[in-house]
Amino acid sequence: xxxxxxxxxxxxxxxxxxxxxxxxxxxxxxxxxxxxxxxxxxxxxxxxxxxxxxxxxxxxxxxxxxxxxxxxxxxxxxxxxxxxxxxxxxxxxxxxxxxxxxxxxxxxxxxxxxxxxxxxxxxxxxxxxxxxxxxxxxxxxxxxxxxxxxxxxxxxxxxxxxxxxxxxxxxxxxxxxxxxxxxxxxxxxxxxxxxxxxxxxxx
Length: 203
Known about the structure:
By secondary structure, the chain is mainly alpha-helical. The chain contains 7 helices and no strands. It has helices at 2-18, 101-116, 122-134, 141-150, 154-167, 173-182, 186-202. The longest helix has 17 residues, at 2-18. The termini are far apart.
């Protein structure tokens, strides 16, 4: 290697000597692609030694982002409604035969009022007689005719005559006609006559 350098330096010196007379007009230079240093040159002052190649610029491509394909949400089918369970037919129970409660109660009330016709209080007997007439208790006709004929109180006899007129039973006509003619009290006679007229008119 040292020998090659010496040869190169000698060739340069020869060319420089030949070209000295013509230095005023032109200059010839030879460049060699590797540094040649001879005696008297110090490589640190050689501006192109060693040759510097800049590092390559590496351009990173942008990352490729792949969006996942859109997938519609899964649709879950609603469960089918359970079939209705047929209920067993209700057992038909025959209705019991009911007794006529209203009629029985009414007859019981009439019976209690008939008993009260013998109450010691005259006003209580008179009130009971009017109640039996308003109830049109045909069952009380015999008891009222007996009271009209025999009760000691004219108030009770007069109430009994009016009650028989309210009931309107033809069975009471004989007792009313006797009271209209023979009773000692005028009010009793008038009420008995009026009741008899009403019954005869409605017959």
